[in-house]
Amino acid sequence: MSSKPTVSVIIPTFNRAGFLRESVTSVLEQSRPPLEVIVVDDGSTDDTAEVIQGFGRDVVYVRKDNGGKAAAVNQVLPRARGDFLWLFDDDDVALPDAIERRLEVLRVRQELCWIFSSHYYGTTGPDGRIVRGAKKQIKVLPEDELYHRLLINCSFLLQSCLIRRDCLAQIGNLNESFLRSQDYDLLVRLGYRFAFSGIEEPTFIWRSHDGLRGPIAERHAASKRLQVWINYDRIIGRWIREQLKLADFTKNPWNVTANESVNGRLALFKRAAVMASKGLIPEMVDDCVDASRICSGALHCEERILCEGLIRQPWFWAAYASDAPAFWRGVRSLIKTKVGREILMFYSLALLHQAKWHDTRWLRRAHHVSMSLRILIECGFLGWRYGG
Fold it and tell me: What's this model's pTM, rounded to 2 decimal places?
């Protein structure tokens, strides 16, 4: 890497001419200018080409047939020359010192391969320009907790990240089979291989709008994006389960040594938390059952928190309608051990907490209370058979 690190900005775009000019301008006017700005037009049918022509030689313009964000970015990665890559979105707006602040952290902490940040929420004003709103609150956790938190819930966005170009090359670029959630898939793979950290201050404004999302092959309204995300998150969750060792769930993977002992029960609970966050209820249940059989000692504080957190994951409830039988089969398996029954007590507590503090609809609140009572009843009627 050069003594003065350089940054290549890549902006994939599809039919966002109305937002694109403001986005490109914000990265060109950085206090620490980028080496280059590359805009990849993924087959737009609006005025995207004319907008980019207005920037002259300041922007490299590449046009391709529509194939999704991942394919667009991958096409231009080989021509990027910067030491770091910034994959920015065509509808967001960078703060003036976004590059400078992140490079300063990376200069001081040269062991890091990438860095993330917070952002501001934004909307589109009457003149079409972005209006800055509230700050996204994130907490940069200790490094031995960072990766597990990323696996459960990514609190930051890819467009907040600066990534060393050679690190990205080693993990194989973006996954072109993902027409959505390709950003999260990339971050999971990067975090598995390379050390990272973040800053809690924003570096850009994330624009919220009702425009269409996705490439032509999977175009969808903003109101449908959660369902699209969960479908791809499940795929990512299965990859995590297949590729990561249990030890990877208790420490950041790059810090785990070959002969290091692992708290198997805690690792299973941590993996169960990841499975719940991806709506993979059968896998979540299997991990809890396996954890209940490892040893008979009472759950410690971290394990209790993890057990309660399983039921609070949004994707758990998105998947429950179709996977309820698997959940209740797991309940009956957990009843058979003392630790399993303790796990179920924390399931029940989480359901009651959800009903009291988070459910705004009476029908949903009643459903969660009834689930909690059913768990307690089954523990009472069946638990005595296995030692009370």
Answer: 0.87
